[in-house]
Write a structure and sequence with these properties.
Strand content: under 5%
Oligomer: single chain
Helix content: over 70%
Shape: globular
Largest sheet: none
Distance between the termini: 7 Å
Length: 299
């Protein structure tokens, strides 16, 4: 047994409390630049969010519904996403593997969210901040992936990890998202009309549907399949995708509140749905991270 770690001590640890070993530091040193990107990213994210919240001109060209959604999104990004990003980055710096997966899930959310801002929102004074958040998030995520010790992380998961439950939830989430969008898109295609949601948003297309169907659903499906097959990458993608789902669902709450305050009845339902999904995914995320048992190093 190496490093003086007893079997009893190892079995009592989880990925939540197990620091990164010195043997992994070489890989992590190569990704430190990606981690440091979190801090300028947080500053630019705060500027973009405050601009949307406090400058009326930013969403002046949007419909009332789209402006309400965007303002709620800005509030969620400022109050929730930015603190999670910064806190996770700080904890990663201290050696937490669990925080690294949460940090990566937060970056994945920012890539998803700011693709929408950059490509769907009408051009406004915050445009360059949208580009900045999107670019920094992409490169930080890519830099972390290149140095991620996937096999080492996977070896830390024990039999208590809710693999089947997590995979089932991810599969169901993917199918629900597909059904939601196709139930709106297919009838519109058959009738030759623009979907109602597109007309209400004032946009040229349904950007959220593009992001969900092209990226969100495949990520859920791939993570679920890899988990069911107990592939090492699945134990990394699972928590990352769950973090993404928790954050993207939580942000629906301030979006729903903003809609309700502007007289849109659907806002309350959006808030309730978002909080419900976030709560369920958060429980699974916590159980998954706690199930990451520390394994003994190879002799």
């Amino acid at each position: 047994m190496q490093d003086g770690v007893s079997e009893h001590e190892a079995s009592g640890r989880s990925i939540l409390t197990t620091p990164i070993r010195r043997s992994d530091m070489n890989n992590n040193e190569h990704s430190q630049w990606a981690l440091w990107l979190s801090f300028p990213l947080a500053i630019i994210l705060a500027i973009a969010s405050c601009g949307g919240l406090f400058l009326p001109s930013v969403y002046a060209d949007e419909t009332r519904r789209q402006a309400a959604l965007s303002i709620g999104n800005d509030a969620g990004n400022l109050v929730l996403i930015m603190p999670v990003l910064v806190i996770a980055a700080i904890v990663v710096r201290r050696g937490s593997r669990a925080a690294r997966l949460v940090w990566m899930g937060t970056l994945a959310y920012l890539v998803y969210d700011f693709l929408g801002y950059a490509l769907a929102i009408h051009f406004n004074s915050m445009f360059l901040t949208y580009c900045g958040v999107l670019g920094l998030s992409v490169y930080a995520l890519a830099g972390s992936l290149m140095a991620l010790p996937t096999a080492e992380i996977a070896r830390r998961y024990g039999p208590r990890t809710p693999v089947k439950t997590t995979a089932t939830v991810l599969l169901l989430m993917g199918l629900v998202i597909v059904f939601h969008w196709l139930s709106e898109i297919v009838p519109s295609l058959l009738s030759g009309q623009v979907p109602q949601a597109v007309r209400e948003s004032g946009l040229s297309t349904e950007a959220v549907a593009v992001l969900d169907l092209a990226f969100g659903v495949p990520a859920c499906m791939i993570a679920a399949i890899l988990l069911l097959r107990r592939k090492p990458l699945g134990f990394v993608l699972g928590p990352v995708v769950l973090t993404f789902l928790v954050l993207s669902s939580l942000v629906l709450a301030p979006m729903g509140i903003a809609m309700a305050r502007r007289g849109f009845e659907a806002g309350r339902a959006l808030c309730a749905i978002g909080l419900g999904i976030a709560a369920g995914c958060a429980v699974l995320l916590a159980l998954s991270l706690r199930g990451g048992k520390a394994s003994l190093p190879a002799p």
